[in-house]
Amino acid sequence: MTAILLIIKSNFRNKKWMVLLTGLCIALAALLFSSGLSILQTVQKPFDNLFNKLNASHILMLYDINDHNTTSLKNWFARQPETERVSDPSPYFLCNGPLVHKGHKIEGMIQLTEHNNDNSIQDKLMVIDGIQKKSPGHGEIWVPVYLAINYHVQIGDTIGIPAPGGLYQVIVSAMIADPHYGSGMVNPTLAWVAAGELPFFVPVAQLSNTMMGIRLKNPDSTAVLWERFTRQFNYTGVNLTYSLFKNAYLGIYQVMGNIILSFSIIALLIALFMVRSAITRAVYDDYKLTGVYKALGFTPENIVSLYVIQYSIMSIIFIPVGLAGTYFIFRWLMGSISQKLGAFDTAGFLPLNIYYYSLVVIAVLVVFTAYLGSSKPAKINPVEAIRMGAPVKRFSKFLLPANIGSSWLPLPVMMGLRFLSFKPRQSLSQGIIIILTIFITVFSLNVAASFGNLKYNKPAWGFENGDIQLSRKDAVILGLTHEQLMEVLLQEKAIQQIVPFSYSSLSILSKEDLPGMEIYGKAYADSLSHAGLLNLQGRHPQSGNEISLCIGTARQFKKHPGENITVFIEGQKTNLLVTGIYQDVSNMGQGFRLHADAIRKLNPIYTPSLYSIKLKKDNNTEDYKNYLLKRLGGTITIDAGIEDRIAQMGIISGIRTALFALSFFFILIMLLTIGSDMIISIKANQKPFGILKSIGWTPGQIRQSMVWKILWITMVALLVAIPPGVFLSPVLMGQVTGGIGLIKFPFIINYTGTLMIIPITLLLICASSWWMAGAATAANPRTLINS
Amino acid sequence: MSNFCIKTEQLVKKYNHGVFDNAVINNVNISIRTGDFSVIMGNSGSGKSTLLYLLSGLDTPGSGKIWINNIPLHGRSQKDLALMRRKMIGFVFQDNNLVPNLTILENILVAGYLVKGDRKLINKRAFSLMEELGILSLASRHPSQVSGGELQRAAIARAMINNPLILLADEPTGNLNGEASEKVLECFSALNRNGQTIVMVTHDLKAACTGNRIIFLKDGTIPLDHSYNIDKHLPGAEDALFTWLKQMGW
């Protein structure tokens, strides 16, 4: 064993650059692989932890106390076997305008909720910053951490609440973690005030809304319980459940995890390819020595174990380097999630098992590749090796350019072509790695652009194409009815299209052996086409007997356009015809779209409360929002657009960072492979370089010929990789985002960026290979020829 | 057979050259006694090195048998041959074939550590061999930092580290100048004086005179009269050998 270790030591010394480059490639593959796994496996832990720690409710019911009797609701839920506890109701007030902080608006709808004594038992809040006390005091407000961070709100700051009587000033006394609304992805966002505080600035008549939570013994029983509830109660309020809150936090991280894990497999294959190439090269370089080792008494098994141990040592050294990188990425990611959750303590979530798993999987693959690669040297005939050295490698017969004499290309450019055509397999493998890197860069750039341009492509994401979403406030004494508001809006010259709609929920009754499921959707009081909505299959519902289903719901219940579906809506069982299937990112692929007639026929007093407004061209959206608020006052609120909410949550910047990091790592891997290839080429071509120098080639020309070899490969790779990068990226993303409801990824091509990849790649490869080719010119011709 | 540490019987080695086989070694029967310093000579392409590689078990015969210390080499697996080699055979090549990135000492120990044993004893033996061969001061140097003759002596030390039964040397002075050759040959003589069995292939008459028996290989065969005993103490031994070789067709 010591003899083998001595040889390995010699190999490490002799090929330190190859060892370093191959090792770094293994490290990067380990980094990507373990990062992807960590994200997918552990992303939900901080959420679940916080959810349980704060004894959060799995169902939140928001309703008007004029419509429902709280005591009977509470008693009913308390009696159910699935229920662990039912909270006391908390009154809330939905602000009819944005909060004002230091003269700036805080975008998004804010639901001010009273914090009562029961919140110390269920739906507790964790004070992250500020005074640690049970409840906000009089004149104080508690805001979620994400809101405080995004709007630079600090403890002691004053916030103006748009109350019917003007701005009501409260002081921020705490920043809190709230597993229900803390993500900012659930609209509205909750802020908390003291019990009994709301009547100070909201007329009591407007305080009819209340929120009640139900904590279950098992979150999986939500659907069964809710179905039973809707059979007995004609519930008209809103209900939000555990899966919605969870997905609001984690859906996008799962997409990121899937992308990283998928590409990490490519990185791993490249690393294994590098291991294989390094061994193949070592076999050739050490051919004679291997014969000598055998003459000394090394058995074929000893030769195999020489490589196996060498790469085991490299795995032990370099995989932890990659895993250390994962540690920092993971800390950053968990920090980002925790920031949204408002909980900063992530130390308990380090996925050590994933580190062990990654270490074992990658080490086994590397060592196995080394084992396969070492079968060749183990079979070397010692006599031939000692007496004749390595067999002469056959060069390709297909040489470029075919006739140097008639070529117009400059000498180094031509020699670059010759170098690449000498060993076409080596050039091909180099090309494949460059192609993959360019593909991933094109993919990352355009996917990031697609997220960034969401606001210009909303229907493809499942949203209405309106510029403004307006909420009509029903419970206001001097409010507007739907008809009144429509009359006002229809007179507005700046408006091109108004589509009234409302959020709705229904239970899909499945076969007897399966529980029903509560899903959320929208009912439109106009043609869905006017809202710009799109379908993947079929058409929009046009009457009260029709429904279109979101892709996840359709798949779960195996429904296709033309089939019927039995649902429980507005407390009544009804049969609807499925007319279409659509995609929607907002609720993990679950949902439905109805024509408002479907609800009206079951509930004649139903009226829509939301309005998607598309403005005519040349109208400034922000100016028009202000104008509407001024004109309609407290009768409406203007909701933050989905694009604002996503941007606010840092989702676009998060995805951009993840994708750019992915590209960066692949570019690094590509440069490492180019580096290793350059070392191999320089070693292999020492003699030709020496000869070229001796006949008058300058060091610069030799360098140029090496650079041109890589540049020729890169030019071909650019041609080969960019078109599939553009066309296959949406297909790949569709696979990854299918789980969150986007099977057809709304892909927008960033033409300028994609074209810029060409000069940047050429420049990067030119610069790096020029630098690395310096080694070819370092030695003097005599040494080169002798070697 | 017990006095012979190497014995071959009807040894044949053929190389296939497309349409016909070329017998490099053809029915060779040799016996080498323990403590002999045998020198294999012959014209270029006569099969000297091939015979040496066959005797070491590095190459396998097409037919025929080889015994080393009464243990048959024929019919053994590559692994068994390797295990036998590390304990029973030391090999010195024309090129020293030292591992370039190991020091002289490490190069010697690489072979020593292959055999299970007390590390301290192996280290001690390595130093003792280096001292004996006059290269002790070079222990921590790398091959690129020492001369050809010194490298070859280091290669001898490496070959001797496991106290092999037989030391095989393939043109050990072929790449050396006169002075370096002499030193290397002196090392072989000294080892042989201490009872080491040596089989050396050489072209060099002077080197051949270091041995005590010449085996002349002609076209892959050794006729019965193609063996010559050298009496080193007689004046003109080198001339006598030359004459004999001429008669053999050298």
Describe what you observe in this structure.
The complex is a heterodimer of chains A (787) and B (250). Chain A is α+β, with helices and mostly antiparallel strands and 787 residues long. Helix content of chain A is 51%, strand content 18%. Chain B is of the alpha/beta class. Chain B is built from eight helices and eleven strands. The chains are: A alpha+beta (787), B alpha/beta (250). At the A-B interface, helix 1, helix 8, helix 9 and helix 12 of A face helix 1, helix 2 and helix 3 of B.
Defining traits:
heterodimer, A: about 775 residues, alpha+beta, 7-stranded mixed sheet, 6-stranded mixed sheet, 26 helices, elongated, B: about 250 residues, alpha/beta, 5-stranded antiparallel sheet, 8 helices, about 35% helix, globular
**Principal-axes shape call of chain B:** globular
**What's the rounded overall pLDDT mean of chain B?**
85
Radius of gyration from the alpha-carbon trace of chain B, in angstroms: 18 Å
Briefly note the structural class of the backbone of chain A: alpha+beta
Low-confidence stretches of chain A: none
Supply the number of helical segments of chain A. 26
